[in-house]
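User: I'll paste a sequence; please echo it back and then give the predicted structure.

Assistant: Echoing your sequence first, then the prediction.
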Amino acid sequence: MTVDLVILTVRAGRLQALLIQRGKIPFKGDLALPGGYVRDGEGLDAAAARELFEETTIDAAHLHLEQLRTYGDPDRDPRGRVFTVAYLALGPNLPLPVAGTDAAEARWCPVDEALESDLAFDHGRILADGVERARAKLEYTTVAAAFCPEPFTVADLRHIYEVVWGAKLDPSNFHRKVTRAQDFLVPTGDHRLPDLGRPAALYRRGPATTLTPAILR
């Protein structure tokens, strides 16, 4: 049993995934998702957090982390029959990763480029599933705020939706939807002064986990 991680953030105005260059066989030298074997007596969540730190030095406590799905095709790993539990991790402005002992290199890669790469194992499929899960979750949950360092403006939040969905949104319509969504945003009472235009109200993430009503693509 292994765990693999689809770690997404927004950097330089693009949705990016964390990839490692494998330092061991099989697929030595190929790009892959961070991950590895689950140890005896270790829980899956603990294994995911450990592998994340060992291969990238990123602390899982700073991320939104959830199970994506389990993959178990017979030929997915040339070493034998291996099942993997994939995790989706989301975080704001994540730092440049530092490769750990199991990886020759770790780096951020724009998702569109990563999806076109020949990743090790079945990691291309896992990455595609993770990206689609993230896009779908923006419709019916408040997870988009996990990409935003607090406090943030509605424009900051709209930028996350536009980057993850790959589509421009109407600013007025978006502002109306997110500010009316129950317990999505909590005003801080402060404002950000722009170079031009009116000051923008600052918010933090509210207690809601689901969007009511949903914001559809």
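The chain has five helices and nine strands. The mean pLDDT is 92.
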